[in-house]
Amino acid sequence: MYKIALAAAAALLLAGCQSTTEEDMGSGYVRVVNDEGVVTHICRNEQTVGTNFKKRVCRTPAQMKEEQETAQRELQRNQRGPLRPVGMN
Fold this sequence. Notes:
By secondary structure, this protein is α+β, with helices and mostly antiparallel strands. It has a domain at 18-78. It has 2 helices and 4 strands, in the order H-E-E-E-E-H. It has helices at residues 2-15, 61-79, and strands at residues 20-24, 29-33, 39-47, 54-59. The protein has a 4-stranded antiparallel sheet with strand order 1-2-3-4.
């Protein structure tokens, strides 16, 4: 009985995740790759503001690109200077 339970637990562990991960040790990112070798998600541990706790956050490559473009636009907008009220020079 013990051997059957151990074999079942091992089978569940091996079959638990259909995708594989590739860890990029230098950047702290983990790429989740499907069976065809296509990156489906990119994960990393992000620290929550005001705490010492880290939370694993996963995004698709498209989401990461959109966030990067949005951040770049906001940076360029903020570098132009502060907004002034209309009619004040």
